[in-house]
Amino acid sequence: MKTKQKSATTMATTALLKALRDADRNSVLGTNRPLVTRLGDIMDAVQAARAQGMSDRDIWKVLHQNGLDFTQASFNTCVFRLRKKRRAFGTVPPQGAVTGGAPDVEMGAAGSADSTRKGVVTYSEDEIARIGAQLKAIPAPERKKTSAISKQDAILALADEINALRTKGYTLPEITEVLNTAGLVITRQTLQGYLLRAKRQKESERRRLTVVDAQAA
Q1: What is the pLDDT of residue 187?
Q2: pLDDT tens-digit profile of 173-190?
Q3: Please, is 79 exposed, middle or buried when counting C-beta atoms within 10 Å of its C-beta (0-12, 13-18, 19+)?
């Protein structure tokens, strides 16, 4: 009798480890999945091992020694909740329900069921892979480079256009009004001072170029 039990336990252990390896191999995330998810994926094998006489403690020891790093208390809690979930479905739950693990068990940083807060949102591996692919496909943002300049520099940059308006017969008060309407708020006196400065800069640049040309000759 003991020999038969030992043989059944050996077969159940082998089936457990094979189920764990297969689940990890067939998963996009492999062993990086939450422990609850990995356990949920092999619940058929866990149930079969129990039916063959293995205790929950024996099942935990086998899985714990092979990378499913639950504490025994966390393992018992998760198994209880997964079994309850399966009974609620009346059969094996759909893929999304199983791979999500126990919805009211949140895994801690070390992978144990350190919290039992309700309402924890879970995602399937296919969803994670799809979201990851979408994130990788997003191109770098195209942002226009903008640099703020002072009001004086703005007038200096617009000096040619403003002088062209004066040549057409517009007065400084009229040009000031046009600039204010366009969003460049300025007084007539300030505009006149900036234009005078722009004129001096232009004349200075012209003289410098003349000297350079003379030296080059």
Answers
A1: 93
A2: 999 999 999 889 999 999
A3: buried
First vs last C-alpha separation in the chain: 115
Reported pTM: 0.41
Helix H or strand E encompassing 128: helix 125-137
Record the tokens describing residue 174, joined without a space: 């009229």
Beta-carbon count within 10 A of 39 CB: 26
- The residue whose two tokens read 């195209």 is 142
Dihedrals φ, ψ of 115, to 5°? -140, 150
**Residue 3, SS3 per DSSP:** helix
CA separation for the pair 214, 112 (Å, rounded): 84
Which one-letter amino acid corresponds to residue 59? I
Q: What is the CA radius of gyration of the chain?
A: 38
* Contact present, 122 and 103 (Cβ < 8 Å): yes
Residues with Cβ within 8 Å of residue 103, at least 6 apart in sequence: 85, 118, 119, 120, 122
- 39, 82 Cβ separation under 8 angstroms: yes
Read off φ and ψ for residue 208, nearest 5 degrees: -65, -40
- The identity of residue 217, as a single letter, is A
Cα–Cα distance, 63 to 21 (Å, whole number)? 11
As given in the structure block, the two tokens for residue 96 are 């999304």
Residue 159 · residue 198 · CB < 8 Å: yes
CA separation for the pair 208, 21 (Å, rounded): 80
